[in-house]
Amino acid sequence: MRKKTLTSTILALAFVAGVTSTAAAQNPFDIDRIITDADNSGVPTAVKKVDPAGSAKELGPINASTTKVGVIHSAPVPMLGLTNPNGQVDLNAIWTQTKTAIDGDVWFYFAWSRDSSNGSGFISIEIQKNAAPAACAYDTATANQLIASCNPWANRTAGDFILLWDQQGGSRDIYIRTFSGTAPNLTLGDPTLLASGVAEAQYSADGFRGEAAVNLTDAGIFTPGTCSSFANTIPGTVTGNSDSADYKDAVLAVFPPVSNCGTVRIQKATSPAGQSGSFPYTLSKTVGNVFLGSADSECATSGVSQATCQNSLASDGDFDVIEGLVAGTDYQLTEGTLASGWSQVSIVCVFDSDTANPYTGANFKVGVSETTTCTINNLFQGTPTAVTVQGHTVRLTDSITVSGILRAAGETALTVTFHLYSDAACATEVGSATEKAANAGIALTLASGSATVGTAQTGSSIQVTNGTYHWRVTFSGNNYNAGFTTSCNGEVTTVSLTDTGSGS
Q1: Both 311 and 420 in a single domain?
Q2: Cβ-contact 33, 203 below 8 angstroms
Q3: What's the gap between Cα 409 and its chain centre?
Q4: What does the alpha-carbon distance between residue 62 and residue 39 come to, in Å, rounded to a whole number?
Q5: Does one domain contain both 204 and 163?
Q6: Phi, then psi, of 501 in degrees rounded to 5
Q7: pLDDT (tens digit, 9 = 90+) per residue, 23-68?
């Protein structure tokens, strides 16, 4: 559905009907005789439901005294059967949508397509407050199951209404009839012709399709500043504008609610993903209450007042869908006190007919029959703690001096190997493999000339902790000097380290 400018609307009405009423000028739907999926999309899209057509059998009310328009809600099951309506009253598609005009009035759009280009019956759109009976699960139940247990009109109640388009002689007259009384003893009110400024209707150029828009606010269905919702829509064709009219066709499908209320979906996103916790929130308005009827069940768990909706989300991806909200542009969403480690990153709200312009400021919009999706992003930051412990290690080295070395021509090299043990028997050697390798086969450094003294020291220190340690050194000897190994207890080192405290 394309939105018109005020000027183009007045010109179109002047050409078609010679009417330039203010109400018609506010019509948010373009009743231009063009009824296609593309023409009737817009944002958000109109909902299209396809109904069997041609020679195909389809579900509809059985013609009987209990299935007349005024009393069909009381008809016992089975009251549906397989029928094949004549082309002029056989609908093959229905489009519906609800929008708010610039002045705040709520308009309902419906379009239809039929098998024949002419007809003398009435297009009937019944709109009920209550949802269809559970037995009427059109999307999942089989035809036999629906026949056995479904009466689509069974939940009819006072305040429900029927829009009737009298198609005799190419008429574009739209009537409204409203139910009163106490169910199941309901009375169908007399038909009221809706003025041209309240309802607009047109046939397509070829006569196979038609579209209409009705100002439900001006028709008395919706009152500004209140919230009312109708859950069940039953389009069809009937033989006349009386309580005893017969149904010829019925489009049994799930249509979107007809409402002047809005919906908010509040959802949680955490970083890192997949976190859980307690994330309380409050939904409120700057002026007035968020609910004028009963509160949504998502809010009742917190003892919600009519002025706010309060609840809590539990984990990443968790969400609440809050319905029945009074439409407005002054909604706020705030988050309550969070557990330690959690902080709020952002609250971003997106109105479903304006996804390109998210709300990140103080106020956001809740629109009629639309959903505003608000995402609360939270960041979790851990608070690591630490305790430091001083290491109980030192590094030990050793050296050797060998005297009385015999020097002569043809002498071979002299080396020493250092070993460190942790026991008095020198049975358990300590040190890493690298340390041991570095301390083996170290060349003895001899004094220059014919001196008889040589020295060497460990090639790598050995790391140890508290304890008693024993060095043993092996002298290789050569062809003029005998080799030897020092005593196990000849060189003993005791290590004793004490901490004076720990850090955190």
Answers
A1: no
A2: yes
A3: 94
A4: 35
A5: yes
A6: 155, 175
A7: 456 888 989 898 888 776 455 667 899 999 888 899 999 999 999 9
